[in-house]
Amino acid sequence: MSVHNSSEPATVVRAATGAQCAAAIDAPASRSAAVDSVASGSAASAYEGDAAYAHKFCILGAGTSGLTVLKNFKELGIACDCLERADDLGGNWYYGQPASSIYDSIHLISSKRLTEYTDFPMPEEFPQFPSRRQAWEYIQAYARHFKLREAIEFNTAVERIEPAGDFWDVRLADGSVRRYRGVVIANGHNWDPNWPSFPGEFRGTVLHSSQYKRPDVLVGKRVLVVGAGNSGCDIAVESSRYAARTFHSLRRGYHYLPKFLHGKPIDACGERWLRWRVPLWLRRIVSKVLVRFAIGAPQQYGLPKPDHKLFETHPIINSEMLYQVGHGRIVPKPDVAELCGERVRFADGSEEPIDVIVYATGFRISFPFIDQRHLNWRDGRPELFLNVFHPERDNLFIAGLIQPDSGQWGLVDYQAQLIGRYLRALDAGRPSAERFRRRSRAVRFDLSHGIHYVKSPRHLLEVEHYSYRQTLQRFIAALR
Ligand SMILES: Cc1cc2nc3c(=O)[nH]c(=O)nc-3n(C[C@H](O)[C@H](O)[C@H](O)COP(=O)(O)OP(=O)(O)OC[C@H]3O[C@@H](n4cnc5c(N)ncnc54)[C@H](O)[C@@H]3O)c2cc1C
Ligand SMILES: NC(=O)c1ccc[n+]([C@@H]2O[C@H](COP(=O)([O-])OP(=O)(O)OC[C@H]3O[C@@H](n4cnc5c(N)ncnc54)[C@H](OP(=O)(O)O)[C@@H]3O)[C@@H](O)[C@H]2O)c1
């Protein structure tokens, strides 16, 4: 076993110690040759270790995305390790952990049937919109059912990944470096707070939505929530029950959709129309009429008129927001103009004394462990085919780099199936792999399916879930 030595270059490789994919099979012929060549020292320069990892993929992260990659790789017999820096799996849904941005009272906004993995239904007894505890239970059950836990190395943080010839060097927090066949990045994109900068200084308590957990910090206070994504709306509603006053600063008008329409989860209603191929313009009109009929327009409650058409921002799904505004428990405000000590001045010139500001201003897309130039970085994000496939590298993939207008886990399950099938086809030298490669390098899919999203960094990863799922399914079928 070679050990890391500070006088040696960082590419010294540690021998296998941790858990490995239970279904890891013998490396396919082409890969075995590559492994041999590395082990005999003929590949990348400073490599000295054994080939314990060189036939395997490293899955970075054991959130809902990393888990389904692990499950699908395991089923397809693709050798892999899953490295997770936390002491348990679940990522964002592992409440209270640094990687988790959820709060205690959260329920999914995507309904269970549109969120669950493709072959592991959520229990019948779960409500349509499960709580965080139920989401966690489900994720744990998935890991148990497919025996994923034993293939995950917990408390194992990846510090850096670098290409090394046809391989990837993965440096861990303990300084050791492993040379893997490739990497599937699944580190999530809802953890690095996007802090806004406003002129002036605020002397009260400041939190980002990802740090907000329970309402005790709001009790009896004058609270300002900034930002009207689903975090801002959920937290403003929670604040309205506990705070002395709640102000909600919005920099534009939005459409608010209730969680249920005629007793059905609203995303399930939308799904039916998508299945019937109702065109966007007609879906827009019908949805608007139904929502207006059920709850009215935001302006009727004193909220600003939406400055865009329905579906042109990531949907706000919240049945309580308008209700609380209608009861004066949430007071809408325009953009923040200046922070003035213990007061905040807004763009309309009004001022309020404020004790606590919660910035629910979203997240930055971050990959602190890899140089952006390896990710084909363009305009604030990696530009990848279907947000998964690198234009030049067949050994680097990202899973979960999407923000769908619906549930995410099932979609990432399809992403994982596609990555796995592509790798199997490549290893077997099947023509379908070459066809997929050519296609992925020549074609740019419109992941919005004709929707013109409002220009905002939060829409950089937005995908229209129905057409995206169909596209993934078609490619999976072509690689079978
Ligand atoms: C408040 C909130 C509510 C949401 N609600 C919904 C919803 O209702 N429905 C829905 O479908 N989606 C929802 N989402 C989106 C949510 O992020 C996804 O459901 C899902 O959790 C993303 O999973 P992931 O595995 O891609 O990322 P994460 O859950 O963030 O997991 C990433 C994992 O990678 C690990 N990791 C990161 N870096 C390293 C490293 N360097 N080394 C080792 N390990 C590392 C982390 O510890 C973590 O475990 C919500 C997001 C937020 C913020
Ligand atoms: N219950 C749930 O399941 C739940 C709860 C919370 C979040 N989520 C999900 O988690 C993801 C992240 O949601 P999020 O609400 O945290 O973030 P988000 O969707 O990115 O929303 C951020 C909000 O902050 C505003 N904003 C951003 N920068 C600003 C600035 N500098 N000044 C003023 N306003 C600013 C944005 O305005 P613009 O409109 O101009 O961009 C937007 O209204 C989404 O996918 C969401 O659906 C789900």
Describe the fold and architecture.
There is one protein chain. This protein is of the alpha/beta class and 480 residues long. It contains ten helices and 27 strands. Helix 8 crosses helix 9 (431-442). The radius of gyration is 24 Å and the shape is globular. Bound molecules: flavin-adenine dinucleotide and NADP nicotinamide-adenine-dinucleotide phosphate (NAP). Residues 106-109, 190, 194, 196, 209, 226-232, 234, 251-252, 313-314, 335, 360-362, 403, 456, 458 line the site of NADP nicotinamide-adenine-dinucleotide phosphate.
Keywords:
480 residues, alpha/beta, FAD/NAD(P)-binding domain, 2 domains, five-stranded parallel β-sheet, 27 strands, 27% helix, disordered N terminus, binds flavin-adenine dinucleotide, binds NADP nicotinamide-adenine-dinucleotide phosphate
Please outline what is shown here.
By secondary structure, the chain is of the alpha/beta class.
> Which geometry do the CA atoms define?
globular
Helix share, percent: 25-40%
Number of helices: 10
State the low-pLDDT regions, or none. Answer: 1-50
* Main β-sheet description: 5 strands, parallel
CATH fold-level topology of the largest domain: FAD/NAD(P)-binding domain
Question: How are the strands of the largest sheet arranged?
Answer: 3-2-1-7-25
Strand content: 15-25%
Bound molecules: flavin-adenine dinucleotide, NADP nicotinamide-adenine-dinucleotide phosphate
Helix/strand class: alpha/beta
Mean pLDDT: 90
Query: What is the distance, rounded to the nearest whole angstrom, between the alpha carbons of the first and last residues?
Result: 39 Å
Number of strands: 27
**Total domain count:** 2
**Gyration radius from CA atoms, angstroms:** 24 Å
- What is the level 1 CATH name of the largest domain? Alpha Beta
The CATH architecture name of the largest domain reads 3-Layer(bba) Sandwich
CATH homologous superfamily descriptor of the largest domain: FAD/NAD(P)-binding domain
